[in-house]
Design brief:
The complex is a heterodimer of chains A (188) and B (290). With 188 residues, chain A is an alpha/beta fold. Chain A contains 6 helices and 9 strands; from the N terminus they run E-H-E-H-E-E-E-H-E-H-E-H-E-E-H. Chain B is of the alpha+beta class and 290 residues long. The longest helix of chain B has 20 residues. Chains A and B meet through helix 5, strand 9 and helix 6 of A and helix 3 and helix 6 of B.
Chain lengths: 188, 290
């Protein structure tokens, strides 16, 4: 079990190995299809994007959030969404924003793995559906952007505390646990 | 679990949405515990542990076990009239705000989210009129991770039982970790294309510890279960021997020139809840045969 503090350095990311179990402390942001599309659109149009996307740990997640009477948001449930939906968008996104880690489920395409290898980015598998346990690790919501995209698709910011367990399922050297499992599948 | 509680339909449906989202059906919990007892793969064992830990916390806190509270699919059986649509609609809106559920429904083109889990065509309700003296309402909240893996094949009759098996196994293994294994695999065989897909989803409502009354289908379920769990896919597609918690197959007659087969995968959180409303009270449970 490895404890890591975000933001992550390229050196730290490159040192992680397939199958390592890690827990995170520090800031992470969420982003799904619509957040990727908007951020890239803004970059193309020369508009300003939230600064903390650069070098971030990106959680593929559309949480259930509850706005309290004082206006602040608290997280109810926040598990990973299927990362493969972002396959078309992620390689450009990683190269543009130097994402250091992606937290998701199910793994990603060869094109994404290539971008991860080039830029120094690791894929951390969170347990799909373990939304209440994972929400405990998102100790504080520190803000949001693009709420007009809807609760699931908005960009949410969290401070994490012992967030995990996360399994290094694709390392920054192009190795994928999903590809390994897939190549060894027994089909009758 | 059986509770007696006479209430208006809107309240019953609200209770169903809360029950389904916060409490995993017992048969699935037992299967998961059994699986973690024999799982040898260390990562798989950690995944199963994280799932069971999460299930306990969700039930204890009374919050949804997964952030994808899905699109609730309703089945109304027995005696009913058209007023039930309004009651279910109101319950979905209230549950979205109060439980809370994640607002998931959007316009398919503009992707605009109305915030209430409603919108054109919602809520989805299937009606099964019978001569029973009760109304039975069942809800299956279906998340997109598993629903997106749905497959239909219009096989040739000559493909036979081996063709059916190959299609089901390939569908589950090609889906990999995306539908959040260990999964419940719903299979529909026969009918027309639309009926076949509907049967595959209905199959997810049958508890996995209930014996299939058809001996041929029972054997088919077992063969598929053994093949899937011997595949090595494992929880979340990270490897291991726990790929499926159960396989449920439904069939009906089809055209002599057709062999439709549909696969609808339920994630480990195959959430379901039923209420049987009688004159003297309401009985809640978490499994149904439609």
């Amino acid at each position: 079990m490895i404890g890591l503090t975000t933001p992550l350095s390229e050196e730290t990311v490159r040192s992680l190995k397939l199958g390592d179990t890690v827990y995170l402390n520090g800031p992470v942001i969420t982003g799904r299809d619509e957040m990727h599309i908007r951020a890239m659109e803004y970059v193309r149009e020369g508009k300003e994007v939230p600064k903390d996307i650069e070098g971030s740990v990106l959680f593929h997640c559309g949480p259930i959030m509850l706005q309290r009477d004082d206006g602040r948001w608290s997280v109810i449930a926040a598990g990973p969404t299927t990362s493969a939906r972002m396959n078309k968008l992620e390689p450009d996104f990683i190269r543009t924003f130097h994402i250091r880690a992606i937290i998701g489920k199910g793994g990603m395409s060869k094109e994404t793995i290539q971008a991860m290898k080039e830029c120094g980015c690791v894929y951390l598998a969170a347990t799909g559906g373990a939304a209440v346990s994972l929400a405990e690790g998102l100790s504080r919501c520190t803000g949001s952007d693009w709420l007009d995209l809807g609760m699931a698709e908005a960009l949410w910011r969290f401070d994490t505390e012992k967030f995990g367990p996360l399994v290094v399922a694709i390392d920054a050297n192009g190795n994928s646990l999903y590809e390994k499992v897939n190549s060894e599948l027994v089909r009758p | 679990m059986m509770i007696k509680l006479p209430e208006p339909v809107e309240d019953v449906v609200y209770n169903l949405l809360r029950l389904a989202n916060t409490k995993l059906p017992e048969d699935l919990g037992w299967a998961m515990e059994a699986a973690s007892g024999w799982e040898q793969n260390e990562i798989a064992y950690t995944q199963l542990g994280a799932i069971m830990d999460n299930v306990k916390k969700a039930e204890h806190l009374g919050v949804p076990m997964c952030q994808d509270t899905g699109i609730p699919v309703f089945y109304v059986k027995g005696r009913f009239d058209s007023s039930i649509v309004g009651a279910i609609t109101k319950a979905v809106e209230r549950a979205t705000k109060d439980i809370p559920l994640r607002p998931n429904t959007v316009d398919p083109i503009t992707r605009e989210n109305c915030g209430s889990n409603l919108g054109p065509g919602m809520p989805i309700i299937h009606f099964i009129p019978t001569d029973d003296d009760f109304t039975e309402i069942t809800v299956l909240p279906k998340g997109a991770g598993s629903e997106n893996m749905t497959r239909l094949a219009m096989l040739n009759p000559a493909d036979g039982i081996e063709g059916i098996k190959k299609f089901v196994i390939d569908s589950v293994l090609d889906a990999g970790g995306r539908p959040c294994p260990p999964t419940v695999v719903g299979v529909g065989i026969g009918g027309t294309s639309d009926v076949c897909v509907a049967m595959a989803k209905e199959a997810l409502l049958i508890p996995i510890d209930e014996e299939n009354p058809d001996p041929f289908l029972r054997q088919l379920e077992e063969d598929l279960f053994v093949a899937l769990n011997g595949s090595g896919l494992g929880p979340m597609g990270l490897g291991g021997s726990t790929t499926s918690l159960g396989v449920r197959v439904k069939k009906c007659a089809c055209h002599t020139a057709s062999l439709p087969v549909a696969v609808n995968i339920g994630c480990w959180a195959t959430r379901r809840a039923s209420a049987r409303i009688k004159d003297d009270g309401v009985e809640y449970s978490q499994g149904a045969r439609i």
